[in-house]
Structure formats: C-alpha cells, structure tokens
Design goal:
Elements: H1 12-15, E1 45-48, E2 51-54, E3 61-64, E4 67-70, H2 88-94, H3 102-114, H4 122-129, H5 134-148, H6 152-159, H7 162-171, H8 175-187, H9 194-201, H10 206-220, H11 224-231, H12 234-244, H13 258-271, H14 281-290, H15 293-307, H16 311-318, H17 321-335, H18 337-347, H19 356-365, H20 370-381, H21 385-392, H22 395-408
Helix pairs in contact: 2-5, 3-4, 3-5, 4-22, 6-7, 7-19, 7-22, 8-9, 8-10, 9-17, 11-12, 12-14, 12-17, 13-15, 16-17, 17-18, 18-20, 21-22
Length: 415
C-alpha cells in the first residue's frame, strides 16, 4: 500500500458517495416505509437539498450533490473515495464562502423572536431548526450572529436543556463545528465515550477529515491527534490516529489492480490471523485506512477467495473490544456505508434504555444521506428510522428528531 494519498479533491463530494448493498434488493418491493404518492406508488422524483433526483428502479447508482441513490438496472459501481456526509455547499461555507439567500434572514429573525422575552417557543424552534437541511442550517449558523450579535449555539444553550437542548445546539452550528462539539462531548469529563468518538472519526473522507481537524483546533485550541492520543489507548488509539492522518489513496486502476489486491489480501492474512505470535494491528489498520472503497472491495474479494472468510470476520478474530467494533465500523463505512449507519442508529436503541446522545448525533450528522440510510434501515430491520424514534423518545426531543428525519424522508410518522 505505498501509494500517496490525496487530502482533498474538487470532485470528492460527488465521487465519495457509496451505493447501498444490493444483497437485500429482492425485498425492495415490500419496503413498507418507502415514500408513496396519493395513489400508493413511489414518486418519480425526490427533492433532496434542492436537487431533483430522478428515481430509478433499485441497484443503479446515480450521484447528485454528493448523494447516491440506488436503482435496479444499471451496472454497479464502487465509489473511489470514502463517503462525504455533508454536501459541497457546506464545505464551501466552512471555507468562508457562504452563499446566503433571503429566506435565511427570515429564519434568523423567527429564531430570535422564539427566544425573546420570558420563556422559549420550543414549537417555533422545532419548526425552524428541525425542518432545515444541512446547507440551510450551516447558513443560519453563519448568518445569525451577523444579524443579532450573538452566536446561535450560545442562545440555544441558554434557552434549552436536556436532550432537546443538546440537539438544538448541534442544529445551531455549521455541520463540521457540530462534529467538533460531538468530539468535545465524547472526550470531556471523566471517561471517554469511545463509541461516539470512533463513529465520528472512522470511515471519513480525507477532505472532511482535514476540515474537521482544522475546525477542532480553531474551536478548542487543541490538536485532534493529540487529544485522541491522550483519551484512548491500545489498538483503538492506533486505529483512530491512522484515521486522523487522512491517508486514503485516490483510486487508480493502473495501480489498484487485481494482482495488487491479492498481494494486500495475503499481507492482511500474514499480519493478522496468519501471524504466529500476536497480531500486527498497525499493519491491518494501514491497509483498511489507505485503501479507497473500490479497491478495498477488491481486497475483500481476494481475501474471501483465498481464505473463505471476509475481512470483517478476520478483524473480529484478530481484535477485541472497542478496537474490534471501531475497525469493523471503519471497514463497513467504506464497503457498505448506508447499512453501517443504519446499524449504528439501531444500536443506540438496543438493550435497556436508549442512548439519546448517540441517536441525536447520528440523526443530525447523517441527515444529508438519511434517505439512503432509511432505505437500508427498512431492508435490515423492517421499519423506518422515524418508527424507531417514535418508540424510543418522547416530548419535544422526539418532535425535533422526527422533523430532522422528515427532511430526508417525508413519510416519517408524526409524533
């Protein structure tokens, strides 16, 4: 894996999207949660972040504004870089070039009125912040202090509390700043929320990782690699530091060949399951971090051909605990990102009690791709993300999360 990586690319937003696995396409006709029109049929077009996506039959890949939609008849293609979870407009705004439009000022004024005087109009905040996409929320966050001389996140912190309060704080931040706040939340105080931390850092594109590192340093005056190194140890530390380095290579068919995939699959075995004494975890992490999704799929196929098990099973056999969970998450964010995000959301509602923090962060972070994630969630678990939220949450917190999901999936149930 000696290829140099590219830290950013002007085309990474459109090329980084990944198609959902087609293994469950046979059940696609029975998905009860899919959008339907008044005649009970699926609509021909879906409006996502202001873009019209022509919906085609399920397994073809169509990419628009960084979003990938599946359909049935065209050849399957694999993304050449890891998934960008934010649209290109958010990246431009983070780099200091936001393009405002008149409605943004109106939204800012409505938020100001909702928080003015005694008490807070939570219903109005839900109607404004909850119903906006990632682009609009980022623009509101940039514009609000210009109009009202106060950062929107500080206003939300003052006006709201609990799970609802933290959700409004995330929605009041530009998308990458929201992720920086999540990392801060995961590492602040006694102990570290390892799952929350690795879910943000693993499986990211070089472009978004570089923006995230710069943003975290700007917001909290601390280097993200230094922070992670001080908060976690062992194999988990090795993996997260590798992820933070942003070493994923740009797929090059002349370099990432079938023969090289066989060599890397063999090397993965020798450094992992096939190693006589111990496991060379750093070598395994380097392979899965450097390999772009299309090439990682080739390595996985070569490993299956040689060993009759896939890379995920090999990682499970070699690793333990949080390092195992994080490595599998990272691998699958490259191979099947939408199913992996759907499984992450489901895991926040598993067992006794609900992980409201994890659920909040996942729903808000992944809103831009929640249409595809919801389709994967239906295929895997027989219900929509909205159905899960209705069952697991309550009050204004539930109403707010449902509105966030409804932006991507209009058939989300009412609270």
């Amino acid at each position: 894996m000696g290829r140099s990586s590219s830290s950013s690319s002007s085309s990474s937003s459109s090329s980084s999207s990944s198609s959902s696995s087609s293994s469950s396409s046979s059940s696609s006709s029975s998905r009860s949660g899919k959008r339907k029109d008044s005649d009970g049929k699926r609509p021909q077009e879906i409006n996502v972040v202001g873009q019209k996506l022509q919906e085609l039959p399920l397994a073809q890949v169509v990419t628009t504004a960084g979003i990938t939609v599946e359909s049935e008849d065209a050849p399957t293609s694999w993304p050449r870089m890891s998934l960008n979870i934010y649209p290109e407009e958010v990246h431009k705004a983070e780099l200091g070039d936001p393009a405002y439009y008149p409605e943004i000022d109106q939204y800012c004024d409505k938020i100001h009125r909702a928080c003015k005087g005694f008490g807070t109009d939570e219903k109005a905040l839900i109607a404004i912040l909850g119903t906006k996409n990632a682009v609009e929320r980022s623009l509101i966050a940039f514009r609000y202090p210009q109009m009202h001389s106060k950062k929107l996140k500080d206003l939300m912190k003052k006006e709201n509390s609990g799970d609802f309060g933290f959700a409004t704080q995330l929605l009041a931040l530009p998308s990458i700043e929201a992720e920086a706040k999540i990392i801060r939340k995961a590492t602040k105080g006694l102990g570290t929320n390892d799952k929350l931390l690795y879910s943000v850092l693993c499986g990211r594109s070089n472009e978004e990782m570089n923006i995230l590192k710069k943003t975290y340093f700007t917001q909290y005056s601390k280097d993200l690699i230094s922070l992670v190194s001080s908060e976690v140890g062992g194999d988990l530390k090795k993996l997260l530091v590798a992820c933070l380095q942003g070493i994923e290579e740009v797929f090059d068919p002349a370099y990432h060949t079938e023969s090289k995939a066989k060599e890397d699959a063999h090397d993965f075995y020798k450094k992992g399951v096939g190693k006589t004494f111990g496991t060379d975890e750093a070598a395994l992490f380097e392979i899965i971090c450097k390999a772009p999704p299309e090439y990682l799929k080739m390595i996985d196929a070569a490993y299956v051909s040689e060993r009759n098990v896939n890379l995920e099973k090999a990682l499970v056999k070699c690793l333990r605990g949080k390092a195992e969970a994080a490595a599998v998450f990272h691998l699958n964010m490259k191979l099947k990102p939408y199913e992996t995000i759907a499984t992450l959301i489901k895991s926040t509602c598993a067992g006794l009690g609900t992980d409201e923090l994890g659920l909040t962060c996942a729903v808000i972070r992944y809103q831009h791709v929640l249409q595809q994630v919801t389709m994967a969630h239906i295929d895997l678990f027989g219900k929509t993300i909205g159905d899960r939220i209705v069952k697991e949450t309550r009050g204004d917190f539930k109403k707010l999360l449902l509105e966030v999901v409804r932006v991507a999936w209009p058939d989300t149930p009412a609270s």
